[in-house]
Amino acid sequence: MKVNEVMVTEVASCSPQTSLQDVAMMMWNNDCGAIPMVDDQEHPLGIVTDRDIAMGAALQSRPLWELRAEDIASHRELFCCGPDEDINKALQLMEAREVRRLPVVNQFNQLCGMVSMGDIVSFTGAENVSKAGDKHISSKETMEFLKHVSGHHPSHKAAAAV
């Protein structure tokens, strides 16, 4: 199974200068928990998550309209995949890098979709055969992925305590 068979293709995005208040409203209006930050040519630069917004506002003690997407999303390394990549390879990348979402980029490195934990789960196991035809992701692989990505990570706790 390929990433393009699982990914979402209608993706809202923001610029580095977009206020976190506007990003939060994009999440609300698009029923999602992450918005990719892109440049003028639609090249992904980072991702703003709902958690980033909450922690950014709390740690900086500033209102959302004063904070920009670049204030919280440009300091982390961004991991992407291609639409023709095998979904298991994308899953392995997400697990290795402990990320819940991957921007999908085309041959010009432009945003063309997103693949998330939810997308992976919706194609897991035989119960979804009618949705995906005969294609599915093994339940065992998905459970290992979810355990790793969703679990508590000691490095994050230690960093927060400092």
Distance between the termini: 42 Å
Q: What is the typical, i.e. mean, pLDDT?
A: 83
- Output the helix-strand order: HEEHHHEEHHHH
Structural class: alpha+beta
What would the keywords be for this entry?
CBS_dom_sf; CBS-domain; single chain; alpha+beta; two-stranded antiparallel sheet; 14% strand; 162 residues; globular
Structure description:
- With 162 residues, the chain is α+β, with helices and mostly antiparallel strands.
- It has a single domain (3-156), classed as Roll (CBS-domain), CATH 3.10.580.10.
- The chain is 42% helix and 14% strand.
- The chain has a two-stranded antiparallel ribbon. Strands 3-4 form a two-stranded antiparallel sheet.
- α4 (87-97) runs parallel beside α7 (139-150).
- The longest helix has 12 residues, at 139-150.
- It is globular and about 45 Å long.
- 26% of the residues are buried.
Topology record:
Layout: H1 20-30, E1 34-38, E2 44-49, H2 50-60, H3 69-73, H4 87-97, E3 101-105, E4 111-116, H5 117-122, H6 129-132, H7 139-150, H8 154-161
Antiparallel strand pairs: 1-2, 3-4
Helix pairs in contact: 4-7
How would you sum up this structure in a few lines?
This protein is an alpha+beta fold. 42% of the residues lie in helices and 14% in strands. A two-stranded antiparallel ribbon has the order 1-2.
